[in-house]
Specification:
The structure holds two protein chains of two kinds. By secondary structure, chain A is mainly α. Chain A contains 16 helices and four strands. Helix content of chain A is 35%, strand content 3%. In chain B, a hairpin with a 6-residue loop joins strand 1 (16-18) and strand 2 (25-27). In chain B, the strands form three sheets. In chain B, strands 3, 4, 5, 6, 9 and 10 form a six-stranded antiparallel sheet that branches. Chain B has a four-stranded antiparallel sheet with strand order 8-7-11-12, with no helix packed on it. The chains are: A mainly alpha, B mainly beta.
Protein backbone atom coordinates (compact mmCIF):
# COMPACT_ATOMS: atom_id res chain seq x y z
CA UNK A 1 0.00 0.00 0.00
CA UNK A 2 1.27 3.42 -0.93
CA UNK A 3 1.92 5.55 2.13
CA UNK A 4 2.31 9.25 2.16
CA UNK A 5 4.77 10.72 4.57
CA UNK A 6 4.48 14.31 5.56
CA UNK A 7 7.55 16.00 6.94
CA UNK A 8 6.62 18.56 9.50
CA UNK A 9 7.99 21.47 11.41
CA UNK A 10 6.68 22.82 14.67
CA UNK A 11 4.79 25.78 13.37
CA UNK A 12 1.35 25.99 14.93
CA UNK A 13 1.24 29.32 16.67
CA UNK A 14 -0.84 30.04 19.72
CA UNK A 15 -3.77 32.41 19.52
CA UNK A 16 -4.37 34.89 22.27
CA UNK A 17 -6.88 34.28 24.97
CA UNK A 18 -6.27 30.62 25.78
CA UNK A 19 -5.54 29.51 29.27
CA UNK A 20 -2.16 28.53 30.64
CA UNK A 21 -3.49 25.04 31.30
CA UNK A 22 -4.53 24.72 27.69
CA UNK A 23 -1.19 25.99 26.48
CA UNK A 24 0.60 23.56 28.76
CA UNK A 25 -1.52 20.69 27.55
CA UNK A 26 -0.96 21.61 23.95
CA UNK A 27 2.76 21.94 24.53
CA UNK A 28 3.12 18.18 24.93
CA UNK A 29 5.15 17.02 21.99
CA UNK A 30 5.91 13.56 20.64
CA UNK A 31 7.82 11.67 23.34
CA UNK A 32 10.09 9.97 20.84
CA UNK A 33 10.92 13.00 18.75
CA UNK A 34 9.12 11.53 15.76
CA UNK A 35 8.47 14.24 13.20
CA UNK A 36 6.79 12.24 10.47
CA UNK A 37 3.27 10.88 10.29
CA UNK A 38 2.42 8.33 7.66
CA UNK A 39 -1.11 8.25 6.30
CA UNK A 40 -2.53 5.28 4.47
CA UNK A 41 -4.50 5.65 1.25
CA UNK A 42 -7.69 5.06 3.21
CA UNK A 43 -6.78 7.81 5.65
CA UNK A 44 -5.93 10.18 2.83
CA UNK A 45 -9.34 9.63 1.27
CA UNK A 46 -10.92 10.69 4.53
CA UNK A 47 -8.58 13.67 4.96
CA UNK A 48 -9.39 14.92 1.49
CA UNK A 49 -13.09 15.03 2.40
CA UNK A 50 -12.31 17.95 4.72
CA UNK A 51 -10.47 20.34 2.40
CA UNK A 52 -10.61 22.56 0.45
CA UNK A 53 -13.62 24.47 1.64
CA UNK A 54 -15.94 25.20 -1.31
CA UNK A 55 -17.71 28.50 -1.88
CA UNK A 56 -20.61 29.37 0.39
CA UNK A 57 -23.64 27.60 -1.08
CA UNK A 58 -26.27 29.79 -2.71
CA UNK A 59 -29.37 30.74 -0.77
CA UNK A 60 -32.29 30.73 -3.23
CA UNK A 61 -34.61 32.03 -0.52
CA UNK A 62 -32.69 35.33 -0.37
CA UNK A 63 -32.47 37.32 -3.61
CA UNK A 64 -29.83 39.65 -2.17
CA UNK A 65 -27.72 36.93 -0.54
CA UNK A 66 -24.75 37.68 -2.79
CA UNK A 67 -25.45 41.32 -3.55
CA UNK A 68 -22.48 43.45 -2.52
CA UNK A 69 -24.56 46.53 -1.66
CA UNK A 70 -26.84 44.39 0.49
CA UNK A 71 -23.83 42.88 2.25
CA UNK A 72 -22.48 46.36 2.90
CA UNK A 73 -25.79 47.58 4.30
CA UNK A 74 -26.14 44.37 6.27
CA UNK A 75 -22.74 44.98 7.84
CA UNK A 76 -23.84 48.52 8.66
CA UNK A 77 -26.90 47.10 10.40
CA UNK A 78 -24.96 44.30 12.11
CA UNK A 79 -23.08 46.87 14.18
CA UNK A 80 -26.03 49.27 14.60
CA UNK A 81 -27.53 49.59 18.08
CA UNK A 82 -30.63 51.32 16.70
CA UNK A 83 -31.99 47.87 15.91
CA UNK A 84 -32.45 47.18 19.61
CA UNK A 85 -35.26 48.25 21.89
CA UNK A 86 -33.15 50.59 23.99
CA UNK A 87 -30.56 51.53 21.36
CA UNK A 88 -27.78 49.85 23.30
CA UNK A 89 -27.36 46.47 21.60
CA UNK A 90 -26.43 45.25 18.15
CA UNK A 91 -25.79 41.86 16.58
CA UNK A 92 -22.11 42.40 17.30
CA UNK A 93 -22.80 42.71 21.03
CA UNK A 94 -23.10 38.92 21.24
CA UNK A 95 -21.23 38.08 18.04
CA UNK A 96 -18.00 39.93 18.68
CA UNK A 97 -15.61 39.86 15.70
CA UNK A 98 -12.66 39.93 18.09
CA UNK A 99 -13.87 36.70 19.70
CA UNK A 100 -14.69 34.54 16.70
CA UNK A 101 -18.04 36.30 16.32
CA UNK A 102 -19.11 34.83 19.64
CA UNK A 103 -18.65 35.76 23.30
CA UNK A 104 -16.22 34.65 25.97
CA UNK A 105 -19.07 34.29 28.47
CA UNK A 106 -21.33 31.26 28.70
CA UNK A 107 -24.49 33.26 28.08
CA UNK A 108 -25.27 36.57 26.46
CA UNK A 109 -26.36 39.58 28.42
CA UNK A 110 -28.87 41.44 26.30
CA UNK A 111 -32.14 42.84 27.56
CA UNK A 112 -32.09 39.68 29.66
CA UNK A 113 -29.84 36.68 29.94
CA UNK A 114 -30.00 34.05 27.23
CA UNK A 115 -30.26 30.36 28.05
CA UNK A 116 -27.74 29.15 25.46
CA UNK A 117 -24.27 30.20 24.45
CA UNK A 118 -23.95 32.56 21.46
CA UNK A 119 -22.73 30.50 18.53
CA UNK A 120 -19.79 31.62 16.49
CA UNK A 121 -20.67 33.03 13.08
CA UNK A 122 -17.63 31.55 11.36
CA UNK A 123 -18.88 29.83 8.17
CA UNK A 124 -22.48 30.41 9.18
CA UNK A 125 -23.48 30.58 5.51
CA UNK A 126 -22.80 26.85 5.14
CA UNK A 127 -25.47 25.86 7.66
CA UNK A 128 -28.62 23.98 6.84
CA UNK A 129 -30.28 24.88 10.15
CA UNK A 130 -29.65 27.73 12.57
CA UNK A 131 -29.49 28.02 16.33
CA UNK A 132 -28.43 25.17 18.58
CA UNK A 133 -31.89 23.64 18.13
CA UNK A 134 -32.28 24.31 14.42
CA UNK A 135 -35.42 26.33 14.97
CA UNK A 136 -34.65 28.43 11.89
CA UNK A 137 -33.79 27.32 8.36
CA UNK A 138 -32.15 30.32 6.74
CA UNK A 139 -29.54 32.83 7.71
CA UNK A 140 -31.82 35.78 6.93
CA UNK A 141 -34.61 34.41 9.08
CA UNK A 142 -32.17 33.75 11.90
CA UNK A 143 -31.07 37.39 11.82
CA UNK A 144 -34.64 38.45 12.66
CA UNK A 145 -35.05 36.49 15.86
CA UNK A 146 -32.62 38.35 18.16
CA UNK A 147 -34.10 41.71 17.14
CA UNK A 148 -37.37 40.73 18.80
CA UNK A 149 -35.99 38.33 21.40
CA UNK A 150 -36.99 39.43 24.89
CA UNK A 151 -33.59 38.40 26.30
CA UNK A 152 -31.70 39.77 23.34
CA UNK A 153 -32.30 43.06 21.49
CA UNK A 154 -35.89 43.26 22.66
CA UNK A 155 -37.24 45.45 19.89
CA UNK A 156 -40.18 44.80 17.57
CA UNK A 157 -40.65 44.56 13.84
CA UNK A 158 -42.89 47.64 13.84
CA UNK A 159 -40.32 49.68 15.74
CA UNK A 160 -37.62 48.44 13.37
CA UNK A 161 -39.62 49.42 10.29
CA UNK A 162 -40.17 52.89 11.71
CA UNK A 163 -36.47 53.21 12.54
CA UNK A 164 -35.54 52.30 8.97
CA UNK A 165 -38.09 54.82 7.64
CA UNK A 166 -37.11 57.58 10.09
CA UNK A 167 -33.32 57.48 10.06
CA UNK A 168 -32.02 59.01 6.80
CA UNK A 169 -28.96 56.78 6.56
CA UNK A 170 -30.92 53.58 7.13
CA UNK A 171 -33.65 54.65 4.75
CA UNK A 172 -31.08 55.42 2.06
CA UNK A 173 -29.42 52.06 2.42
CA UNK A 174 -32.69 50.15 2.46
CA UNK A 175 -34.21 51.94 -0.52
CA UNK A 176 -31.05 51.54 -2.57
CA UNK A 177 -31.47 47.77 -2.34
CA UNK A 178 -35.21 47.23 -2.14
CA UNK A 179 -36.74 50.36 -3.64
CA UNK A 180 -39.00 52.90 -1.99
CA UNK A 181 -40.36 52.22 1.47
CA UNK A 182 -44.13 52.28 1.84
CA UNK A 183 -45.70 55.15 3.74
CA UNK A 184 -45.76 54.18 7.42
CA UNK A 185 -46.82 57.60 8.73
CA UNK A 186 -50.38 56.71 9.73
CA UNK A 187 -50.10 55.70 13.41
CA UNK A 188 -53.54 54.09 13.31
CA UNK A 189 -52.33 51.68 10.62
CA UNK A 190 -48.71 51.40 11.75
CA UNK A 191 -48.31 51.83 15.53
CA UNK A 192 -44.84 52.86 16.73
CA UNK A 193 -44.07 49.40 18.13
CA UNK A 194 -45.65 45.99 18.03
CA UNK A 195 -45.03 42.32 17.30
CA UNK A 196 -46.93 39.05 17.30
CA UNK A 197 -46.49 36.29 19.83
CA UNK A 198 -43.45 34.14 19.46
CA UNK A 199 -43.45 30.46 20.35
CA UNK A 200 -43.28 31.45 23.99
CA UNK A 201 -46.83 32.27 24.96
CA UNK A 202 -46.06 35.07 27.37
CA UNK A 203 -42.96 36.84 26.11
CA UNK A 204 -44.69 39.71 24.27
CA UNK A 205 -46.05 42.56 26.40
CA UNK A 206 -49.77 43.09 25.95
CA UNK A 207 -49.37 46.60 24.52
CA UNK A 208 -47.04 45.35 21.79
CA UNK A 209 -49.24 42.39 21.05
CA UNK A 210 -52.36 44.57 20.98
CA UNK A 211 -50.74 47.05 18.62
CA UNK A 212 -49.84 44.25 16.25
CA UNK A 213 -53.26 42.66 16.43
CA UNK A 214 -54.92 46.00 15.63
CA UNK A 215 -53.36 45.98 12.16
CA UNK A 216 -54.84 44.61 8.96
CA UNK A 217 -53.35 41.54 7.26
CA UNK A 218 -52.13 43.72 4.39
CA UNK A 219 -50.30 46.01 6.80
CA UNK A 220 -48.84 42.99 8.57
CA UNK A 221 -47.50 41.93 5.19
CA UNK A 222 -45.96 45.37 4.63
CA UNK A 223 -44.13 45.34 7.96
CA UNK A 224 -43.11 41.70 7.69
CA UNK A 225 -41.62 42.36 4.27
CA UNK A 226 -39.46 45.20 5.62
CA UNK A 227 -38.50 42.98 8.56
CA UNK A 228 -37.52 40.09 6.28
CA UNK A 229 -35.57 42.40 3.98
CA UNK A 230 -33.53 43.68 6.91
CA UNK A 231 -32.68 40.07 7.76
CA UNK A 232 -31.71 39.39 4.16
CA UNK A 233 -29.13 42.18 4.15
CA UNK A 234 -27.63 41.08 7.46
CA UNK A 235 -27.42 37.55 6.05
CA UNK A 236 -25.67 38.88 2.95
CA UNK A 237 -22.97 40.25 5.24
CA UNK A 238 -22.76 37.20 7.47
CA UNK A 239 -22.21 34.98 4.44
CA UNK A 240 -18.85 36.72 4.10
CA UNK A 241 -17.70 35.58 7.54
CA UNK A 242 -15.77 32.63 6.19
CA UNK A 243 -12.85 30.82 7.77
CA UNK A 244 -10.59 29.22 5.17
CA UNK A 245 -6.90 28.83 4.31
CA UNK A 246 -6.00 27.28 7.63
CA UNK A 247 -2.80 25.40 8.36
CA UNK A 248 -4.80 22.22 7.79
CA UNK A 249 -5.87 23.43 4.34
CA UNK A 250 -2.26 24.16 3.42
CA UNK A 251 -1.30 20.72 4.67
CA UNK A 252 -3.92 19.06 2.47
CA UNK A 253 -2.87 21.14 -0.48
CA UNK A 254 0.65 19.93 0.17
CA UNK A 255 -0.47 16.31 0.26
CA UNK A 256 -2.13 16.73 -3.13
CA UNK A 257 0.88 18.47 -4.60
CA UNK A 258 3.56 16.45 -2.85
CA UNK A 259 4.90 19.76 -1.53
CA UNK A 260 6.82 19.39 1.72
CA UNK A 261 6.80 23.10 2.40
CA UNK A 262 3.01 23.04 2.45
CA UNK A 263 2.71 19.84 4.45
CA UNK A 264 5.00 21.39 7.04
CA UNK A 265 2.12 23.75 7.88
CA UNK A 266 0.79 21.06 10.22
CA UNK A 267 2.88 20.23 13.28
CA UNK A 268 3.60 16.57 14.09
CA UNK A 269 1.25 16.83 17.03
CA UNK A 270 -1.54 18.22 14.83
CA UNK A 271 -0.91 15.48 12.27
CA UNK A 272 -1.31 12.85 14.93
CA UNK A 273 -4.43 14.65 16.08
CA UNK A 274 -5.73 14.51 12.53
CA UNK A 275 -5.03 10.79 12.43
CA UNK A 276 -7.06 10.38 15.61
CA UNK A 277 -9.80 12.68 14.33
CA UNK A 278 -10.45 10.55 11.26
CA UNK A 279 -9.53 7.30 12.99
CA UNK A 280 -9.93 5.96 16.47
CA UNK A 281 -11.56 9.05 17.91
CA UNK A 282 -14.05 9.05 15.02
CA UNK A 283 -14.80 12.76 15.38
CA UNK A 284 -15.47 12.85 11.66
CA UNK A 285 -18.74 10.94 12.06
CA UNK A 286 -20.51 14.17 13.04
CA UNK A 287 -17.87 16.73 12.11
CA UNK A 288 -18.05 15.74 8.46
CA UNK A 289 -16.99 17.45 5.28
CA UNK A 290 -15.03 20.63 4.59
CA UNK A 291 -16.94 22.63 7.17
CA UNK A 292 -16.37 19.95 9.82
CA UNK A 293 -20.08 19.64 10.62
CA UNK A 294 -22.93 17.47 9.41
CA UNK A 295 -25.21 20.41 10.16
CA UNK A 296 -27.50 18.03 12.03
CA UNK A 297 -28.30 17.24 15.66
CA UNK A 298 -26.97 14.87 18.28
CA UNK A 299 -27.25 14.28 21.99
CA UNK A 300 -24.06 14.11 24.00
CA UNK A 301 -25.90 13.81 27.31
CA UNK A 302 -24.19 16.89 28.72
CA UNK A 303 -25.38 18.14 32.06
CA UNK A 304 -26.23 21.81 32.40
CA UNK A 305 -23.55 24.41 33.08
CA UNK A 306 -24.64 24.56 36.73
CA UNK A 307 -24.57 20.78 37.19
CA UNK A 308 -28.32 20.29 37.00
CA UNK A 309 -30.06 17.71 34.85
CA UNK A 310 -31.03 19.09 31.43
CA UNK A 311 -34.66 19.77 30.69
CA UNK A 312 -34.33 21.35 27.27
CA UNK A 313 -36.21 19.72 24.40
CA UNK A 314 -33.73 21.36 22.01
CA UNK A 315 -34.09 19.87 18.51
CA UNK A 316 -37.49 18.38 19.25
CA UNK A 317 -38.85 21.86 19.93
CA UNK A 318 -36.70 23.45 17.24
CA UNK A 319 -38.06 21.18 14.53
CA UNK A 320 -41.60 22.06 15.53
CA UNK A 321 -40.78 25.77 15.49
CA UNK A 322 -39.09 25.83 12.11
CA UNK A 323 -41.93 24.03 10.37
CA UNK A 324 -44.45 26.62 11.57
CA UNK A 325 -42.25 29.71 11.24
CA UNK A 326 -43.83 32.20 8.78
CA UNK A 327 -40.30 33.26 7.88
CA UNK A 328 -39.13 29.78 6.92
CA UNK A 329 -37.85 28.82 3.47
CA UNK A 330 -41.29 27.71 2.32
CA UNK A 331 -43.08 30.76 3.66
CA UNK A 332 -44.46 33.95 2.13
CA UNK A 333 -41.23 35.91 2.64
CA UNK A 334 -38.95 33.37 1.01
CA UNK A 335 -37.73 34.45 -2.41
CA UNK A 336 -38.12 30.88 -3.68
CA UNK A 337 -40.63 28.89 -1.63
CA UNK A 338 -40.22 25.91 -3.96
CA UNK A 339 -36.44 25.64 -3.66
CA UNK A 340 -34.54 22.83 -1.98
CA UNK A 341 -34.47 24.48 1.49
CA UNK A 342 -38.26 24.76 1.38
CA UNK A 343 -38.65 21.08 0.58
CA UNK A 344 -36.25 20.25 3.37
CA UNK A 345 -38.30 22.03 6.01
CA UNK A 346 -41.53 20.59 4.67
CA UNK A 347 -40.12 17.07 4.81
CA UNK A 348 -38.42 17.51 8.18
CA UNK A 349 -39.19 14.84 10.78
CA UNK A 350 -40.48 15.99 14.15
CA UNK A 351 -39.71 13.03 16.37
CA UNK A 352 -39.42 12.62 20.16
CA UNK A 353 -36.10 10.92 19.36
CA UNK A 354 -34.66 14.37 18.72
CA UNK A 355 -35.36 15.50 22.28
CA UNK A 356 -32.24 17.06 23.79
CA UNK A 357 -30.24 17.09 20.57
CA UNK A 358 -28.10 20.07 19.61
CA UNK A 359 -26.53 21.03 16.33
CA UNK A 360 -23.02 19.94 15.47
CA UNK A 361 -20.95 23.12 15.31
CA UNK A 362 -18.38 23.72 12.61
CA UNK A 363 -14.82 23.29 13.82
CA UNK A 364 -13.35 25.85 11.43
CA UNK A 365 -11.62 28.50 13.59
CA UNK A 366 -13.05 26.79 16.65
CA UNK A 367 -10.06 27.89 18.75
CA UNK A 368 -11.10 31.53 18.40
CA UNK A 369 -14.43 31.23 20.19
CA UNK A 370 -14.34 29.53 23.59
CA UNK A 371 -16.25 28.51 25.66
CA UNK A 372 -17.77 25.46 24.00
CA UNK A 373 -21.06 23.53 23.81
CA UNK A 374 -24.59 24.90 23.97
CA UNK A 375 -24.19 26.36 27.42
CA UNK A 376 -20.51 27.04 27.19
CA UNK A 377 -19.94 24.15 29.58
CA UNK A 378 -16.30 23.75 28.56
CA UNK A 379 -13.83 26.60 28.85
CA UNK A 380 -11.09 25.20 26.63
CA UNK A 381 -10.71 22.80 23.75
CA UNK A 382 -8.79 20.57 26.10
CA UNK A 383 -11.87 20.39 28.33
CA UNK A 384 -13.90 19.32 25.31
CA UNK A 385 -11.46 16.58 24.40
CA UNK A 386 -11.33 15.52 28.05
CA UNK A 387 -15.08 15.02 27.98
CA UNK A 388 -14.99 12.85 24.88
CA UNK A 389 -12.14 10.88 26.44
CA UNK A 390 -14.03 9.98 29.60
CA UNK A 391 -17.69 10.98 29.00
CA UNK A 392 -17.60 11.80 32.69
CA UNK A 393 -20.83 13.31 33.94
CA UNK A 394 -22.84 12.23 30.94
CA UNK A 395 -26.50 11.58 31.66
CA UNK A 396 -28.97 9.29 29.94
CA UNK A 397 -32.26 11.06 29.46
CA UNK A 398 -34.37 8.21 28.13
CA UNK A 399 -34.51 9.56 24.62
CA UNK A 400 -32.32 8.70 21.69
CA UNK A 401 -28.66 8.72 22.65
CA UNK A 402 -25.70 8.45 20.39
CA UNK A 403 -25.00 4.78 20.86
CA UNK A 404 -21.77 5.21 19.00
CA UNK A 405 -20.43 7.56 21.66
CA UNK A 406 -17.99 5.64 23.81
CA UNK A 407 -15.22 6.94 26.08
CA UNK A 408 -12.13 7.35 23.92
CA UNK A 409 -9.74 6.87 26.85
CA UNK A 410 -7.12 9.06 25.29
CA UNK A 411 -3.65 9.50 26.70
CA UNK A 412 -2.52 12.98 27.66
CA UNK A 413 -0.39 13.14 24.52
CA UNK A 414 -3.34 12.09 22.37
CA UNK A 415 -5.52 14.76 23.94
CA UNK A 416 -2.88 17.36 23.23
CA UNK A 417 -2.57 16.08 19.68
CA UNK A 418 -6.30 16.45 19.08
CA UNK A 419 -6.26 19.96 20.47
CA UNK A 420 -3.30 20.81 18.23
CA UNK A 421 -5.26 19.59 15.26
CA UNK A 422 -8.33 21.59 16.22
CA UNK A 423 -6.18 24.69 16.56
CA UNK A 424 -4.78 24.08 13.09
CA UNK A 425 -8.27 24.70 11.70
CA UNK A 426 -8.02 28.42 12.43
CA UNK A 427 -8.29 30.19 9.10
CA UNK A 428 -7.05 33.52 7.87
CA UNK A 429 -8.50 36.53 9.67
CA UNK A 430 -11.18 38.54 7.93
CA UNK A 431 -10.09 41.79 6.39
CA UNK A 432 -10.36 44.63 8.91
CA UNK A 433 -13.17 46.22 6.95
CA UNK A 434 -15.30 43.09 7.18
CA UNK A 435 -14.85 43.07 10.94
CA UNK A 436 -16.04 46.60 11.56
CA UNK A 437 -18.93 48.90 10.85
CA UNK A 438 -18.62 50.75 7.55
CA UNK A 439 -18.70 54.53 7.61
CA UNK A 440 -21.96 54.68 5.69
CA UNK A 441 -24.85 52.48 4.65
CA UNK A 442 -23.74 52.15 1.05
CA UNK A 443 -20.48 51.26 -0.70
CA UNK A 444 -18.67 54.41 -1.79
CA UNK A 445 -19.44 53.81 -5.47
CA UNK A 446 -23.16 53.71 -4.70
CA UNK A 447 -23.40 56.90 -2.68
CA UNK B 1 -25.92 8.97 -12.34
CA UNK B 2 -25.10 12.57 -12.84
CA UNK B 3 -27.64 15.35 -12.88
CA UNK B 4 -26.91 16.22 -16.48
CA UNK B 5 -27.71 12.68 -17.53
CA UNK B 6 -30.87 12.81 -15.51
CA UNK B 7 -31.97 15.92 -17.31
CA UNK B 8 -31.03 14.40 -20.65
CA UNK B 9 -33.06 11.27 -19.94
CA UNK B 10 -35.97 13.33 -18.77
CA UNK B 11 -36.04 15.60 -21.76
CA UNK B 12 -35.33 12.92 -24.35
CA UNK B 13 -37.91 10.47 -23.17
CA UNK B 14 -40.45 12.93 -21.82
CA UNK B 15 -41.11 10.65 -18.96
CA UNK B 16 -39.68 11.95 -15.78
CA UNK B 17 -38.00 15.23 -15.11
CA UNK B 18 -35.82 15.50 -12.09
CA UNK B 19 -35.07 19.18 -12.41
CA UNK B 20 -31.68 19.02 -10.80
CA UNK B 21 -31.33 18.70 -7.08
CA UNK B 22 -33.76 21.50 -6.44
CA UNK B 23 -36.59 20.38 -8.67
CA UNK B 24 -39.57 18.14 -8.41
CA UNK B 25 -40.28 14.76 -9.85
CA UNK B 26 -42.77 15.31 -12.62
CA UNK B 27 -44.53 12.50 -14.41
CA UNK B 28 -45.66 12.91 -17.98
CA UNK B 29 -46.41 10.39 -20.66
CA UNK B 30 -46.03 6.66 -20.28
CA UNK B 31 -43.15 5.26 -22.31
CA UNK B 32 -42.22 2.01 -20.66
CA UNK B 33 -38.82 2.14 -22.31
CA UNK B 34 -37.33 3.90 -19.28
CA UNK B 35 -37.68 0.78 -17.17
CA UNK B 36 -34.44 -1.12 -16.89
CA UNK B 37 -34.28 -4.73 -17.90
CA UNK B 38 -34.48 -6.99 -14.86
CA UNK B 39 -30.94 -7.68 -13.74
CA UNK B 40 -30.55 -10.31 -10.99
CA UNK B 41 -27.20 -8.84 -10.01
CA UNK B 42 -28.84 -5.49 -9.26
CA UNK B 43 -32.15 -6.73 -7.90
CA UNK B 44 -32.88 -6.17 -4.22
CA UNK B 45 -35.17 -9.07 -3.34
CA UNK B 46 -37.92 -8.84 -0.72
CA UNK B 47 -37.90 -10.96 2.43
CA UNK B 48 -40.43 -13.48 1.07
CA UNK B 49 -38.95 -13.51 -2.39
CA UNK B 50 -42.09 -12.20 -4.08
CA UNK B 51 -40.69 -8.88 -5.22
CA UNK B 52 -37.47 -7.28 -6.27
CA UNK B 53 -36.57 -3.67 -6.85
CA UNK B 54 -33.95 -1.97 -8.92
CA UNK B 55 -33.14 1.64 -8.34
CA UNK B 56 -31.28 4.51 -9.89
CA UNK B 57 -29.54 7.15 -7.84
CA UNK B 58 -29.79 10.78 -8.82
CA UNK B 59 -27.20 13.02 -7.20
CA UNK B 60 -24.37 15.35 -8.03
CA UNK B 61 -22.02 12.38 -7.89
CA UNK B 62 -22.28 8.85 -9.20
CA UNK B 63 -23.02 7.40 -5.78
CA UNK B 64 -25.16 8.15 -2.79
CA UNK B 65 -23.50 11.20 -1.27
CA UNK B 66 -22.81 11.81 2.40
CA UNK B 67 -24.91 14.60 3.89
CA UNK B 68 -26.33 15.82 0.60
CA UNK B 69 -29.82 15.29 -0.70
CA UNK B 70 -30.32 12.74 -3.44
CA UNK B 71 -33.18 11.19 -5.34
CA UNK B 72 -34.07 7.61 -6.17
CA UNK B 73 -36.00 6.22 -9.08
CA UNK B 74 -37.34 2.82 -8.05
CA UNK B 75 -38.57 0.00 -10.32
CA UNK B 76 -40.50 -2.78 -8.57
CA UNK B 77 -40.65 -6.25 -10.10
CA UNK B 78 -42.48 -9.45 -9.26
CA UNK B 79 -40.94 -12.88 -9.53
CA UNK B 80 -43.01 -15.14 -11.78
CA UNK B 81 -42.49 -18.43 -13.56
CA UNK B 82 -41.53 -16.35 -16.58
CA UNK B 83 -38.93 -14.42 -14.63
CA UNK B 84 -39.07 -10.89 -13.25
CA UNK B 85 -42.09 -8.89 -14.40
CA UNK B 86 -42.85 -5.23 -13.81
CA UNK B 87 -45.18 -4.33 -10.99
CA UNK B 88 -47.20 -1.20 -11.58
CA UNK B 89 -50.01 -1.57 -9.06
CA UNK B 90 -48.08 -1.78 -5.79
CA UNK B 91 -47.53 0.85 -3.17
CA UNK B 92 -43.86 1.31 -2.42
CA UNK B 93 -42.50 3.12 0.62
CA UNK B 94 -38.82 3.98 0.87
CA UNK B 95 -36.93 4.67 4.07
CA UNK B 96 -33.45 4.27 5.51
CA UNK B 97 -31.75 3.92 8.87
CA UNK B 98 -28.40 3.52 10.57
CA UNK B 99 -29.00 0.48 12.78
CA UNK B 100 -25.71 0.85 14.64
CA UNK B 101 -26.60 4.40 15.56
CA UNK B 102 -30.25 3.71 16.33
CA UNK B 103 -31.64 6.41 14.06
CA UNK B 104 -32.98 6.99 10.59
CA UNK B 105 -33.07 9.95 8.28
CA UNK B 106 -34.00 13.35 9.62
CA UNK B 107 -36.36 14.07 6.76
CA UNK B 108 -39.19 12.06 5.26
CA UNK B 109 -38.68 11.50 1.54
CA UNK B 110 -41.49 12.47 -0.78
CA UNK B 111 -42.63 9.45 -2.75
CA UNK B 112 -44.46 9.82 -6.03
CA UNK B 113 -45.91 6.97 -8.03
CA UNK B 114 -45.31 7.85 -11.64
CA UNK B 115 -47.63 7.09 -14.53
CA UNK B 116 -45.68 4.05 -15.61
CA UNK B 117 -45.81 2.50 -12.14
CA UNK B 118 -42.23 3.34 -11.20
CA UNK B 119 -41.54 5.30 -8.06
CA UNK B 120 -39.84 8.67 -7.68
CA UNK B 121 -38.29 9.31 -4.27
CA UNK B 122 -37.42 12.92 -3.60
CA UNK B 123 -35.32 14.26 -0.77
CA UNK B 124 -33.31 11.35 0.63
CA UNK B 125 -30.55 12.49 2.98
CA UNK B 126 -27.92 10.26 4.60
CA UNK B 127 -26.44 12.80 6.96
CA UNK B 128 -23.64 10.71 8.46
CA UNK B 129 -20.95 8.42 7.13
CA UNK B 130 -21.19 4.77 8.08
CA UNK B 131 -23.49 1.84 7.37
CA UNK B 132 -27.01 2.65 6.26
CA UNK B 133 -29.83 0.26 5.46
CA UNK B 134 -32.14 1.21 2.60
CA UNK B 135 -35.67 -0.17 2.86
CA UNK B 136 -38.29 -0.70 0.15
CA UNK B 137 -41.67 -1.74 1.56
CA UNK B 138 -43.83 -3.12 -1.25
CA UNK B 139 -47.52 -3.44 -0.50
CA UNK B 140 -50.10 -5.09 -2.67
CA UNK B 141 -53.50 -6.47 -1.70
CA UNK B 142 -52.85 -5.55 1.91
CA UNK B 143 -49.65 -7.57 2.18
CA UNK B 144 -46.28 -5.88 2.65
CA UNK B 145 -42.87 -7.33 1.93
CA UNK B 146 -39.63 -5.54 2.63
CA UNK B 147 -36.64 -5.53 0.32
CA UNK B 148 -33.56 -4.05 1.91
CA UNK B 149 -29.99 -3.42 1.01
CA UNK B 150 -27.08 -1.77 2.73
CA UNK B 151 -25.06 1.24 1.75
CA UNK B 152 -21.73 2.10 3.30
CA UNK B 153 -20.73 5.74 3.18
CA UNK B 154 -17.07 6.42 3.84
Amino acid sequence: MRRWVATCALCVGSAGGISNAQQAAEAIEPPDGELRVAFTDAELRLIFQHSPLPAVPPDPTNNVADDSAAAHFGRYLFFDTRLSGDNSLSCSTCHDPTHGFSLDSQFSQGAGTTSRHAQSLWNVGYNRWYYWDGSVDSLWSQALKPIEGADEMNSSRLALAHTIAREPDLRRGYEHIFGGLPDLSDPMRFPTAGKPRSHKADDVPEELLGAWQSMTPDDHQTINTIFANVGKTIAAYERKIVSRDSAFDRFVEGLHAGDEMLTSALSPSAQRGLQLFIGRANCRLCHTGPNFSDGEFHSLGLINHDGTIPNDAARFEGATKVKSDPFNAAGAFSDDPDAAPAKLVQQLVVSPETWGQYKTPSLRSVATSPPYMHQGQFVTLHDVVDFYSSLEGRVQMGHHQETILQPLELSEVEKADLVSFLRSLTGQALTPELSARPSGPLPSASK
Amino acid sequence: MRKSLVLMLGSMLSVVLFAGCTGQIVSSGNPASLWPKPDPTKMVVSNNGTYGVQYWIFADTDEIPTNEQFWLYVFPFEKTSDGWQRVTDAQVKVDAAMPHHGHGMNIVPKITQLDDGSIGVEGMLFHMPGRWELYFDITRNGVTERAQTEVFLE
